[in-house]
Amino acid sequence: MSDGQRATGRPAGLRERKKQRTRDALLRAALDLFTTQGYEETTVDEIADAVEVSQRTFFRYFAGKESAAFAVQEMIESRFLLELRQRPAPEAPFEAMRRAVVCSWNSIGEAIEAIVPVELHMRTYHMIESTPVLLAAHMRRGVALEEQIAHLIAEREGLDVGRDPRPRVAVAAFCGVMRVTGQLWGHGCDGTMESLRDLTERYLDQLGPALAGGWRSRPAGAECPRRPAADPATAPYTAERAASPHTA
Asked: What is the distance between the alpha carbons of residues 165 and 144, in angstroms, rounded to a whole number?
């Protein structure tokens, strides 16, 4: 299957399957070489030689080494975007993004393992983080993805993303959680896709409470200090106050 077919689940013809096998073999060879001898030290000729094809064949499937380094991540992102576009309109932005992640993870592990071993995928993650040129590319790609998601959320909500900051703010918070879970998974002991999914869900579940505030807890037995009655004329203009029928 091509990346588009892997994202949509559509079957591929014989010719497409042969092309996909060549692409997958080149990708596995590239990632294995990148993670064993170094990204900068690996040449396109070495990748092509490992699969016994020409350099021209490599460039038929990848724009360059960077394209190969991020190929699996690009597939994951495509699945997420597809799921997000299909979420029901009544879902709130955070709920739509969370459900899109969970639904895409229902099959993403199998899709990754169809291309590369999960262990190689994890090694690739470490390689990207430890290679300055790839880390910079990773950050650029992250910014571009966030902008794409923000436009999707704005479209769902009927908002102008240029005038309303909420889509970008919501997406920044959501993608921040995804980055944290990816880093924790990449540096953890359990390298299975199931552990990544569980970790992602646990952290996404904390997004709402984290934004709600009220983190501080009183020491056991401490009394809550008594507050003087607030003067309505000087009280902060909160959302609750704005919704009050007594607010001028």
From this structure: 16
75: closest CA among 42, 44, 33, 113? 113
Q: What is the DSSP string of 7-65?
A: HH-----HHHHHHHHHHHHHHHHHHHHHHHH-TTT--HHHHHHHHT--HHHHHHH-SSH
CATH topology of domain 70-210: Tetracycline Repressor; domain 2 (1.10.357)
Query: Which parts of the chain fold into alpha helices (H)?
Result: 3-8, 14-37, 44-51, 55-61, 65-69, 71-86, 93-115, 118-130, 132-157, 166-186, 193-205, 207-212, 239-243
Provide the pLDDT for residue 240: 36
Q: Is the pTM of this model over 0.85?
A: no
Q: 200-234, pLDDT tens digit by residue?
A: 889 988 888 888 777 776 454 444 444 444 444 43
Taking the C-alpha atoms of residue 131 and residue 204, their distance in angstroms, rounded to an integer, is 28
Domain boundaries of the chain, sorted by first residue: 1-65, 70-210
pLDDT value at 1 more than 80: no
CATH architecture of 1-65: Orthogonal Bundle (1.10)
Mean pLDDT for all residues in the chain = 82
- Please answer whether residues 130 and 38 qualify as being in contact, where contact means their C-beta atoms are separated by less than 8 angstroms: no
